[in-house]
């Protein structure tokens, strides 16, 4: 199973096929992913543990376990963990391509391109 550690937390790839990819993503307390969008995929995020503060095209909302965020193709998005406990969510990607190089970062706390 593919696993990667990032400055904000870590993720595991649970399923990877031609039509979709599924990840389990953990965001550390105070951690935040880059504000980004994709050219070739949309995403559905389901919070399974903790609280995720999701920014979607400039709108900010806190999501709790069991709540779902729909991220359309091309929508600018990010998730951050405003709490002192980890945030875990399941990301289902659907589209035509799922490579990490289809991330267009608009803003990033860790100075990644």
Automatic annotation (TrEMBL):
It comes from the Bacteria. InterPro entries: Man6P_isomerase-2_C, Mannose-6P_isomerase_type2, RmlC-like_jellyroll, RmlC_Cupin_sf. SUPFAM superfamilies: RmlC-like cupins. GO terms for molecular function: isomerase activity; mannose-1-phosphate guanylyltransferase (GTP) activity. Keywords: Isomerase. Residues 5-108 form the Mannose-6-phosphate isomerase type II C-terminal domain. One of its GO terms (biological process) is GDP-mannose biosynthetic process. Pfam families: MannoseP_isomer. This is Mannose-6-phosphate isomerase, type 2. It comes from Salinimicrobium catena.
């Amino acid at each position: 199973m593919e696993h990667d550690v990032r400055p904000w937390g870590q993720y595991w790839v649970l399923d990877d096929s031609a039509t979709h990819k599924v990840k389990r993503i953990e965001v550390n307390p105070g951690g935040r992913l880059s504000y980004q969008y994709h050219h070739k995929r949309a995403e559905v995020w389901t919070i399974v543990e903790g609280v995720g503060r999701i920014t979607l095209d400039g709108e900010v909302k806190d999501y709790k376990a069991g709540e779902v965020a729909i991220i359309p193709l091309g929508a600018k998005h990010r998730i951050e963990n405003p709490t002192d406990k980890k945030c875990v969510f399941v990301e289902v990607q659907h589209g035509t391509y799922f490579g990490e190089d289809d991330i267009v970062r608009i803003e990033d706390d860790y100075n990644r391109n």
